[in-house]
Design goal:
The chain has 153 residues and is mainly β. 10% of the residues lie in helices and 42% in strands.
Length: 153
């Protein structure tokens, strides 16, 4: 029985080394934008005091242009990576992208690891709509009959 408790304790201790309290979430500066418009994307990093490093890999949808990687490194024109190995703190990274010249719904995807834990999916907002015009922005866009602050049509 004692041996079983020791083994169980060792298993729990081993698994605990893969668990992290840190988290990374995504948010957009707008819920929908017009074609070719600029958007800020925020990645909020929340760490606990015992976490010593993290790696973030964010994938921008096809057709979008990264105009400012927000301190990250761009690869293949669609992937931004942040690697922090020294003195990590909770922070927010803001990168800027330009919407494509076509309407639709686009998904932003990303993964991260903290303290060499399992790879996790970035939480928060994922899908963004690109429209030909924006209702309710006070500007009479082509296709609108009026702009009366109605956000639906």
């Amino acid at each position: 029985m004692k041996k079983m408790h020791v083994i169980l304790f060792l298993v729990i201790l081993t698994l605990a080394s893969f668990v992290t309290a840190g988290d990374i979430t995504r948010s957009f500066s707008s819920s929908s934008i017009k074609m070719n418009e600029i958007l800020d994307v925020r990645l909020t990093v929340t760490l606990s005091p015992d976490e010593s490093f993290y790696v973030i890999e964010e994938h921008v949808p096809s057709g979008w242009i990264i105009t400012n990687p927000g301190g990250g490194v761009v690869a293949n024109q669609r992937v931004i990576t942040w690697v922090v190995f020294q003195n990590p703190v909770s922070t927010t990274y803001t990168y800027t992208v330009q919407a494509p010249p076509s309407v639709g719904f686009y998904d932003f995807r990303g993964n991260y690891t903290i303290n060499n834990s399992l790879v996790r999916t970035i939480g928060g907002e994922v899908t963004l709509e690109v429209r030909t015009f924006m209702c309710g922005n006070g500007i009479l866009d082509p296709g609108e009959q009026c702009d009366d602050n109605n956000l639906n049509n």
